[in-house]
Design goal:
It is built from ten helices and ten strands. It is of the alpha/beta class and 259 residues long. Helix 1 packs parallel to helix 2, helix 4 crosses helix 5 and helix 8 runs antiparallel to helix 9. The longest helix is centred in the first third of the chain and has 20 residues.
Length: 259
């Protein structure tokens, strides 16, 4: 299904979301942000979908905010627009299904932060990431001030935020921000392969594990230990756990169903 500025496709148990404003390097629009949020909410409620892939059409993943429209609205308009973006980022984190970003070309500004909000990032060789906000006298939005310092530390994060220097995917891989760097011609193939592997995994367990990792940033060790205990008590009743135990005893590969 092609929404305005977003292509939504079901590929078996995988939901493919493609940013579709190639003429503007997939710069964000209100329709794109709303479409992404709605698609994620629908995916969360669809038991047939177990993994999500986010990519960009054309030459790049996303240029982030649309510079062409900047300066046309006042503070109230900006406040409302960033609020919608915040809702999208929070929805991504609340979605109990793995989200994989497949990045090529440029991921700039909030486009970089959109990738950071995903659970895993695959990037094409030669792709570049840039926190371009300071170039237009702005601060990061879309969660960059939260995600990046936790991944690489505050000093390096501030360097990238202050300087707006393009960062090669290869360097971000070395820093642990990106999971894999692959040749451009293999990006779609490798991303699909990973998404299908996750989609055929124990979906409920992965969804709960995602939430535990997210909570670890704002919780004490004692709080996480208790959350693990409570969650584990629920997991032992799932079909996937019972299937995993049976498969182990029978020395076969488990067939998980995300239930």
């Amino acid at each position: 299904m092609v929404q305005e500025h977003l292509i939504v496709e079901k590929l078996g148990p995988v939901l493919s979301l493609t940013l579709n404003r190639p003429e503007s390097l997939n710069a964000f629009s209100p329709e794109m942000i709303l479409g992404l949020k709605e698609a994620l909410v629908n995916a969360q409620n669809d038991p047939d979908l177990q993994a999500i892939v986010l990519s960009g059409a054309g030459r790049s993943f996303s240029a982030g905010g649309d510079v062409k429209t900047m300066g046309q609205g006042g503070p109230g308009d900006v406040y409302e627009h960033v609020g919608k973006l915040n809702e999208l980022i929070l929805t991504m984190k609340d979605t109990e299904k793995p989200i994989i970003a497949a990045v090529h070309g440029f991921a700039a500004g909030a486009g970089f932060n959109l990738a950071l909000a995903c659970d895993l990032i695959l990037a094409a060789e030669g792709s570049k990431f840039v926190l371009s906000f300071s170039q237009v006298g702005l601060v990061s939005d879309g969660g960059g001030s939260y995600f990046l310092p936790k991944l690489i530390g505050p000093h390096l994060a501030k360097q990238f935020l202050f300087s707006a220097e393009p960062i090669p995917a290869e360097r971000l891989y070395e820093l642990g921000v990106i999971n894999r760097v692959v040749p451009l011609e293999k990006l779609q193939e490798e991303t699909t392969k990973l998404a299908l592997k996750l989609a055929h995994g124990p979906g409920k367990a992965m969804g709960k594990q995602k939430k535990l990792v997210e909570r670890s940033f704002t919780s004490t060790l004692g709080e996480i230990l208790e959350q693990e205990r409570l969650t584990q008590a629920l997991m032992v009743e799932t079909e996937d756990h019972k299937e995993g135990v049976s498969a182990f005893k029978e020395k076969r590969k488990p067939v998980f169903k995300g239930r």
